[in-house]
C-alpha cells in the first residue's frame, strides 16, 4: 500500500506540474481574437498597449513559475514523508498492493474478431422520418440561392409590412432585455478589462437595479462575475442575491465564458460549463435556465445538446449566415426546437431563438431599420463618445416628443414581431462592455421607462412593453406557443448546424477555423493533461480517504492547482481566444532510470512511448524484469544531423500506470534504426555515428515502408505518399499527399484572422530546391520524412498489433514566418468516389454531413474539423483524424483538404486591428485511416476510428521518476477491473469542491460518461482493440479493481439537478450518443 500511494503521489505531482505549466504558457502567451466591432475602435490601443501587456505577462509568468516550483517541492516532500511514516509503522496501511494484478505481465492479445453485440449495430442502421414541420439545414442550403439582394432598410432581408388591426384581439408583448457582453480578453487582457470596465458594470448593476424594481439585467460570463464576487463585501453579496430572488438579475448560460462553438472540443465545453455552474451553486445558489450566445462565429448543435443535458430549457443564438437568417425569417422559423440529428423523437429538443438581424448591438435589435433603432440607443445621445453612423442622433424622451417617439419605436417592434409566430417579441438592449457608467444606466432606463409608460397607458396601441430577462421572454413565448389550448401555431423542429458563418457579401468566417494553429494544438494538449490530472487526483484522493491518510496528501493545494488549470482552459474556450504544441519529451540522461507511463484512456492499451536518451546503448525492461521491444533512432536537428531518442512498446492498463526501467546496455539492447537519404540532383552529406546510413546513387525507385497491417509507397522525388495497401484484403488505393498555397484576393476586403477570402483556387506547392528525403526503418516504427522549405512532412507506421498499427501517422512541421499573405494547405487526393459529399465532426462529439456546393464561393465550402473528417463511397471510407482543430474541405471528389497555417498581412475589418503575423513553427499531427465498408443509411465513425481518435488526442504520458523517488519500490497501478466497453468514453472523473471554507475537495466526484454512436458496416477483424460492446451497460460493482461506489446518483451534466429515475447503483446504462453525469462517492 505504501508503495502504491508513494507512486501515486509522485506521478500526480508530475501530472499537475504539466497541467500548470501548459496552462500558464497558454494563458500568458496567446493573442486573442475577436469579432465584429466598429472597424476602427481599437487598433491604435492595441499597438500602444502591446509592450506593457507583454511585460506584465513576463512578470506574471516568472512569479507563477516560482510559486509552482514551491508547490511541486511540497508534493515531493509529502511523498517522502508518507514513505517514512509507513516505514516507521505509523501509517497503519495494508502492506499489500492495492491492485492485485488483474493483468498478466503483458496485456492479452487483441481478439481476431472484435466482439460487438448485434443490438449495438441497430443505432447506425435505423432510419426515421422527419417530423412534418421538421427542417434539416442541409436541405435549406440546397434550397437557398444565396443571391444577396438589397432588402432596403433591412439590407440583408426584405420589406416588412403589417395591418394596424393585427393586435386588436391580442396585444403585442415586448420584452426589452438589457445586457452587456464582456469578452474575457481581446484588445486588452482579462485583468485590464475587469479593472477598467467590468467591475464598474457589475457594481452599477447592484446600485441601479435596486433603484427601480421594474429594471432587469442579464449576465453571462462567470469568469468575470466570480472575480468581482471575490472582491465585494457581504452586504453587497446579499444585495446581489436579493436581485436574483426578485428576478431582476439573471445569469444566462452560466459558463466560465461564452465559448467558441467551432474549434472547441466537447471536453472543454463541458469543463467550462461545469466550472461556471459549480461556482454558481457554491456561491449564489442560482441555476441558469437559458443559454445566451450572441457572439460565437457560427453555432453547433453540440452546444445545444450540452445545454439541454445541463438542465437548461431555452437558448438564443445570433451569428448565423445572413441568407439563412433571411430564409428563417421569411418562413417564421426563427424560433424552433433544435433537435440532434440522431434523435428520432424529441428527447434532445431545446427551444431556440435566432436573432434575425445583423448584430446584437442596439441599432440591429429593435427592428429591421438600424437608422431608427440607433435613435433608441440613449448612450449615443449628443455629447457622448459614441454616435449613430446614420447621422440621426437619439433624442431624450420628453412629454413633448413621447407620442412621436413611441410611434417610431412601436413600428419597429411590430415589424420585428411579424418575423415570428407569436405576438411576443424580444428586444436586446446592450452591446460590448455596456453600462460601465452610471450615466448610461440613467440614459437608457429612464428614457425607456417613459416610452413603456406611454405605451402601457394607451390601450389603443395594443402593446404591453417592459424590461425583462431572457427567461421572462421565453416563459411568455412558451405560454403562447406550447401550452395546450392556445390557438398559435406550434414551433418547428430544426436539425443540423449553423456553419459556415457569413455576415455580409462573400465574407465567410472560415479563416478562424485555422488561425493560430499553434495555440489550437496547445489547447488540445492542455485538455489531455488536465483530464489526466483530474482522474489521477480523484483516484488518489479516494484511496487516501479510504486509508485515512489525508494529512499526508496536499489535497487542498492540488485542488487549487486543478481549479486554476480548469479556469485557464475555460478562458481559452472563449470565442476570441481559442485560436497547439510540440511533443513534450522526457529526457533520460544517465545510468538506470525509472519511467512511469500513464494511460489516460479507458482502454487497455499498447502504444509507443518515446524519450530522449544520451546513448544509443540502452535497454528497456518491465518492472518484472522482462525485456520490451525498443528502437533507438536519431532526433534530427535539421535534415542531416541528429541526437538520439528511444522508442519502446508500452502496455498499460486502462487509466493505469506502467513502470519501465531504462538502463545502459553494452549488448542486447534496443535495435538501432537504419536510414536511407535521397535528394534529386543535389549533393548530400550526412553527419551520423551509431546508425547505418545509405545514400543510393539511383534514386528513382518508389519508396516504401510497411507494418503488419499497411504498406505505403511514396514518390522518390518528393517523399510524399502516392499509394496505400491494406494487407488484410490486399486492396490497394491511390492516396496522394500534396501541399498547396492560397493567396488573398486583390479586392479591398482581404483575408484576416477571421475571414478567408482567397484569390481563387489553390496553387500547387513547388519548392525552389529539391527536398531532402529520409527513410527510417526500425523494429518499432518506420517513417518517410521530407524536408521542404516551409514544411517538414513525415509519414510514420507503427509496428504494433494494437490500434496505432492500423493508421498512417502524418506529422507536419510548418514554418511560414517569412511569407506574405499566404495560407498553406495539405491535400489528400484519392480514388474514393465521394462526389460532392464529405463529413466533418462537430466538437469531437458528432458527425455532420457536408455537401460541397458550386453555387457558393470556395471559402464557404470550408468547415471546422475538430477531431476528424472523412470521405467515402459505397465500399471505402478514408478518414483523417486530427490532434488539433483546423479548417477542412472536400472541393473535388476524392479529396480532403486542411489548411495548416495562415500568415496574413492586414486586418479583415472585424475589429482586431491587425493581421495574423505572430506565426510560430507549428507541428500538426494526424492519423489517416482507410477502411472497407458496406453501404449504410446513416454515417457514424467506426469503433476503430473512435478509439484511434481517442489515442491520438490522449497519448500515453511518460514521466521520469525523480531521484528522490527512485529509491521507492514503485509498482504498476491498475485502477479498473477491465477496459470499459469500446463505445463508452470516460469524459472525466472530476473532484467536486467542498462547500465549506478552505477550498478543498469534498468526498464526492463527478463521473461523466459518453456512449459514442458507431457504424458496424466495417470489418471487425484485426482491429487491435482490447474491448467489447455491452449495449451501453456498465456493472458498477465490476468497474474498479479495488475501489467501490459508496453512492452513485444520476444528475444533470453539470450537477445542477438530480435527474428522475436513471441508473441503479448496480448498473449504469447509456443510450447511443448520450452524455451522462453521476455524482459519486468512491470508497
From TrEMBL:
GO cellular component, alphabetical, reads:
Golgi membrane
Q: How does it sit in the membrane?
A: Single-pass type II membrane protein
The cofactors required by this protein are:
Zn(2+)
Reading the lineage from the top rank, the first entry is: Eukaryota
| Domain annotation Glycoside hydrolase family 38 central: ranges | 507-594
GO MF annotation: an example: mannosyl-oligosaccharide 1,3-1,6-alpha-mannosidase activity
According to the record, the segments passing through the membrane are 9-28
Q: Which InterPro entries match?
A: Gal_mutarotase_sf_dom (IPR011013), Glyco_hydro/deAcase_b/a-brl (IPR011330), Glyco_hydro_38_C (IPR011682), Glyco_hydro_38_cen (IPR015341), Glyco_hydro_38_cen_sf (IPR037094), Glyco_hydro_38_N (IPR000602), Glyco_hydro_38_N_sf (IPR027291), Glyco_hydro_57/38_cen_sf (IPR028995)
Q: What does this protein do?
A: Catalyzes the first committed step in the biosynthesis of complex N-glycans. It controls conversion of high mannose to complex N-glycans; the final hydrolytic step in the N-glycan maturation pathway.
Tell me its family.
Answer: Belongs to the glycosyl hydrolase 38 family.
**Which protein are we looking at?**
mannosyl-oligosaccharide 1,3-1,6-alpha-mannosidase
Question: What is the primary gene name for this protein?
Answer: MAN2A1
Amino acid at each position: 500500500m505504501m508503495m502504491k500511494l508513494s507512486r501515486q503521489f509522485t506521478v500526480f505531482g508530475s501530472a499537475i506540474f504539466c497541467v500548470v505549466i501548459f496552462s500558464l504558457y497558454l494563458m500568458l502567451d496567446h493573442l486573442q481574437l475577436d469579432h465584429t466591432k466598429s472597424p476602427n475602435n481599437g487598433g491604435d490601443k492595441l499597438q500602444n498597449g502591446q509592450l506593457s501587456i507583454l511585460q506584465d505577462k513576463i512578470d506574471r509568468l516568472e512569479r507563477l513559475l516560482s510559486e509552482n516550483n514551491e508547490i511541486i517541492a511540497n508534493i515531493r516532500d509529502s511523498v517522502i514523508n508518507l514513505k517514512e511514516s509507513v516505514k516507521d509503522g505509523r501509517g497503519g496501511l495494508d502492506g499489500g498492493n492495492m491492485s492485485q494484478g488483474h493483468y498478466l505481465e503483458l496485456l492479452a492479445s487483441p481478439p481476431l474478431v472484435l466482439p460487438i453485440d448485434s443490438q449495438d449495430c441497430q443505432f447506425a442502421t435505423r432510419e426515421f422520418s422527419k417530423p412534418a414541420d421538421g427542417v434539416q439545414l442541409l436541405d435549406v442550403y440546397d434550397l437557398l440561392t444565396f443571391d444577396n439582394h438589397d432588402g432596403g432598410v433591412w439590407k440583408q432581408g426584405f420589406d416588412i409590412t403589417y395591418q394596424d388591426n393585427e393586435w386588436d384581439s391580442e396585444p403585442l408583448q415586448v420584452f426589452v432585455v438589457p445586457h452587456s457582453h464582456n469578452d474575457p480578453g481581446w484588445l486588452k487582457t482579462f485583468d485590464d478589462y475587469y479593472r477598467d470596465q467590468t467591475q464598474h458594470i457589475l457594481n452599477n448593476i447592484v446600485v441601479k437595479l435596486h433603484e427601480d424594481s421594474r429594471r432587469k439585467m442579464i449576465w453571462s460570463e462567470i469568469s468575470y462575475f466570480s472575480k468581482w464576487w471575490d472582491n465585494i463585501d457581504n452586504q453587497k453579496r446579499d444585495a446581489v442575491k436579493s436581485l436574483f430572488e426578485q428576478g431582476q438579475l439573471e445569469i444566462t448560460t452560466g459558463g466560465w465564458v461564452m465559448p467558441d462553438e467551432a474549434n472547441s472540443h466537447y471536453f472543454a465545453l463541458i469543463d467550462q460549463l461545469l466550472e461556471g455552474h459549480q461556482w454558481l451553486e457554491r456561491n449564489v445558489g442560482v441555476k441558469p435556465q437559458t443559454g445566451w450566445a450572441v457572439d460565437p462565429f457560427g453555432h453547433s448543435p453540440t452546444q445545444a445538446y450540452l445545454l439541454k443535458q445541463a438542465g437548461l430549457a431555452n437558448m438564443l443564438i445570433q451569428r448565423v449566415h445572413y441568407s439563412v437568417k433571411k430564409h428563417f425569417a421569411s418562413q417564421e422559423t426563427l424560433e424552433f426546437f433544435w433537435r440532434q440529428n440522431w434523435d428520432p423523437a424529441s428527447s434532445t429538443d431545446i427551444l431556440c431563438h435566432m436573432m434575425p438581424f445583423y448584430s446584437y448591438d442596439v441599432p440591429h435589435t429593435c427592428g429591421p431599420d438600424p437608422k431608427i433603432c440607433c435613435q433608441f440607443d440613449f448612450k449615443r445621445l449628443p455629447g457622448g463618445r459614441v454616435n449613430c453612423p446614420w447621422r440621426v442622433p437619439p433624442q431624450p424622451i420628453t412629454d413633448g416628443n413621447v407620442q412621436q417617439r413611441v410611434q417610431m419605436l412601436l413600428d419597429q417592434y411590430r415589424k420585428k414581431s411579424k418575423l415570428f409566430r407569436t405576438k411576443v417579441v424580444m428586444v436586446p438592449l446592450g452591446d460590448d462592455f455596456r453600462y460601465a457608467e452610471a450615466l448610461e444606466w440613467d440614459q437608457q432606463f429612464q428614457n425607456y421607462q417613459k416610452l413603456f409608460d406611454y405605451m402601457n397607458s394607451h390601450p389603443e396601441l395594443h402593446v404591453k412593453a417592459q424590461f425583462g430577462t431572457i427567461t421572462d421572454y421565453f416563459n411568455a413565448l412558451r405560454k403562447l406557443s406550447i401550452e395546450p389550448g392556445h390557438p398559435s401555431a406550434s414551433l418547428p423542429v430544426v436539425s443540423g448546424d449553423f456553419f459556415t458563418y457569413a455576415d455580409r457579401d462573400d465574407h465567410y468566417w472560415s479563416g478562424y477555423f485555422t488561425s493560430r494553429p499553434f495555440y489550437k494544438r496547445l489547447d488540445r494538449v492542455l485538455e489531455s493533461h488536465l483530464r489526466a490530472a483530474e482522474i489521477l487526483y480523484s483516484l488518489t484522493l479516494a484511496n487516501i480517504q479510504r486509508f485515512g491518510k489525508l494529512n499526508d496528501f496536499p489535497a487542498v493545494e492540488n485542488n487549487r492547482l486543478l481549479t486554476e488549470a480548469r479556469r485557464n482552459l475555460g478562458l481559452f474556450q472563449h470565442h476570441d481566444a481559442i485560436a497547439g504544441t510540440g511533443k513534450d519529451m522526457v529526457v533520460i540522461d544517465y545510468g538506470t532510470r525509472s519511467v512511469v507511463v500513464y494511460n489516460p484512456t479507458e482502454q487497455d492499451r499498447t502504444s509507443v512511448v518515446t524519450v530522449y536518451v544520451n546513448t544509443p546503448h540502452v535497454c528497456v525492461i518491465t518492472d518484472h524484469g522482462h525485456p520490451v521491444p525498443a528502437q533507438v533512432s536519431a532526433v534530427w536537428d535539421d535534415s542531416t544531423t541528429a541526437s538520439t531518442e528511444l522508442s519502446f512498446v508500452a502496455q498499460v492498463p486502462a487509466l493505469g500506470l506502467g513502470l519501465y526501467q531504462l538502463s545502459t546496455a553494452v549488448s542486447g539492447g534496443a535495435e538501432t534504426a537504419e536510414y536511407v537519404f535521397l535528394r534529386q540532383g543535389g549533393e548530400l552529406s550526412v553527419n551520423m555515428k551509431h546508425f547505418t546510413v545509405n545514400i543510393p546513387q539511383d534514386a528513382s525507385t518508389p519508396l516504401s515502408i510497411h507494418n503488419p497491417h499497411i504498406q505505403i509507397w511514396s514518390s522518390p522525388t518528393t517523399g510524399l505518399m502516392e499509394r496505400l495497401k491494406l494487407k488484410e484484403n490486399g486492396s490497394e488505393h491511390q492516396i496522394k499527399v500534396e501541399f498547396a498555397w492560397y493567396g488573398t484576393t486583390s479586392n479591398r476586403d482581404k483575408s484576416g484572422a477571421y475571414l478567408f477570402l482567397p484569390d481563387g483556387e489553390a496553387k500547387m506547392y513547388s519548392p525552389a530546391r529539391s527536398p531532402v528525403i529520409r527513410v527510417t526503418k526500425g523494429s518499432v516504427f518506420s517513417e518517410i520524412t521530407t524536408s521542404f522549405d516551409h514544411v517538414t512532412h513525415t509519414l510514420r507506421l507503427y509496428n504494433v498489433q494494437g490500434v496505432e498499427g492500423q493508421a498512417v501517422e502524418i506529422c507536419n512541421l510548418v514554418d511560414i514566418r517569412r511569407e506574405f499573405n499566404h495560407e498553406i494547405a495539405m491535400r489528400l487526393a484519392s480514388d474514393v468516389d465521394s462526389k460532392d459529399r464529405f463529413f466533418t465532426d462537430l466538437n469531437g462529439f458528432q458527425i455532420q454531413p457536408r455537401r460541397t456546393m458550386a453555387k457558393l464561393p470556395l471559402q464557404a465550402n470550408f468547415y471546422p474539423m475538430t477531431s476528424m473528417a472523412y470521405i467515402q463511397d459505397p465500399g471505402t471510407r478514408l478518414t483523417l483524424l486530427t490532434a488539433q482543430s483546423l479548417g477542412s474541405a472536400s472541393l473535388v471528389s476524392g479529396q480532403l483538404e486542411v489548411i495548416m497555417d495562415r500568415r496574413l498581412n492586414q486586418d479583415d475589418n472585424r475589429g482586431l486591428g491587425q493581421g495574423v503575423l505572430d506565426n510560430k513553427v507549428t507541428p500538426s499531427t494526424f492519423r489517416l485511416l482507410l477502411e472497407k465498408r458496406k453501404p449504410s443509411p446513416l454515417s457514424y465513425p467506426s469503433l476503430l476510428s473512435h478509439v484511434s481518435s481517442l489515442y491520438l488526442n490522449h497519448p500515453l504520458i511518460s514521466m521520469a521518476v525523480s531521484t528522490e523517488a527512485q529509491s521507492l519500490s514503485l509498482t504498476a497501478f491498475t485502477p479498473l477491473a477491465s477496459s470499459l466497453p469500446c463505445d463508452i468514453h470516460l469524459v472525466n472523473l472530476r473532484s467536486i469542491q467542498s462547500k465549506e471554507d478552505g477550498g478543498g475537495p469534498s468526498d464526492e466526484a463527478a463521473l461523466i460518461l459518453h456512449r459514442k454512436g458507431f457504424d458496424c458496416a466495417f470489418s471487425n477483424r484485426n482491429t487491435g482493440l482490447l474491448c467489447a460492446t455491452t449495449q451501453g451497460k456498465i456493472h458498477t460493482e465490476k468497474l474498479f479493481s479495488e475501489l467501490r461506489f459508496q453512492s452513485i446518483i444520476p444528475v444533470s451534466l453539470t450537477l445542477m439537478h438530480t435527474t428522475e429515475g436513471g441508473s441503479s447503483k448496480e448498473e449504469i446504462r447509456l443510450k447511443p450518443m448520450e452524455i451522462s453525469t453521476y455524482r459519486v462517492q468512491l470508497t
